[in-house]
Amino acid sequence: MFNINIDNPSGLEIINITNRQLGIELEIIASFGAVINRFVVNDSPFSFITGYADHKDLVDNHPFFSRSAKLFPFPNRLAHGQYTFAGESYQLPANFPWSDHAVHGLLYNQAFLIKETQVDENHARVTLQFDSKHLDAPGYPFPFCLEVIFVLNTTGLLQCETHIVNTGESALPFGDAWHPYFNLGVDRSQFTLSMSPCHEWLHDDDLPSGEKQTFSQFVSPSTLEGVEFNHCFEFDDLESGLIELKRLDGKAQLLYAQQSSYPFVQLYTPNSEASIAVEPMTCPANAFNNEIGLLVLEPGQSSTFQWQCQAIYTG
């Protein structure tokens, strides 16, 4: 049986989903970007999601990591925070100390409301909500309501769904994404990556150049030893955007999939840790300007996006 406990240590509202019989634990930080902070299955001695140790680690030490946070209304970078939509020009701040661009949207550090929780023998479900009336962003004056639904089952399958509604009176431009950092408890050189056939978008100064090329290096499982990623890919078949991470010793693997509503994925290998970010995106960087994958909702319209991952640990 699943259980849900809500705690508030040091001012962070944290949701803990557990199934003690199956050794499953999922931790979500509702009050800071809807961050997925911990994911354990079969009592694995590590978390399949790389998270934060505590309040200080997240809020004071690494508030800009955006590990496993919700990214909206744009992922990645927006060139110098500037864009034009429907004949009007807008300016967002360069919000990260290491970049001249606007980075990771506007919700990566925002507090989400816990709307609903449900549990039974086979599933746990949590719905979080964010209303733009709580957002101080003059450079993005487009009202919206966003819900995030997490569903976890007894097999270690985690589904993450986002539902967006335009609550304003004019068209709303946006891109949607997540920023999960995955970990298999060993160095990246000790596990393989495989992914569906795709194209790599070439980039210049972390922004798409407008050109893409076939990418097939990981169609078959290959190790990540010596591989450095900070690249955007577009799946050739949007119905089968699959990625698999598997330890060489066979003790752990992660099966990842994103629905066709997320055509793009960003892979990133941080230098400071053994994780790999696998980021489902509706658009690449700078979509408000290059319009690659840019989405628009008319008043009252809504859209839904989903990705999922299944964690497997055999010990």
Automatic annotation (TrEMBL):
UniProt xrefs under InterPro entries: Aldose_1/G6P_1-epimerase (IPR008183), Gal_mutarotase_sf_dom (IPR011013), GH-type_carb-bd (IPR014718)
Family annotation (Pfam families): Aldose_epim
One Gene Ontology term of the molecular function aspect: carbohydrate binding
GO biological process, one term: galactose catabolic process via UDP-galactose, Leloir pathway
Stored SUPFAM superfamilies: Galactose mutarotase-like
Name used for this protein in its record: Aldose 1-epimerase
Species assigned in the record: Vibrio astriarenae
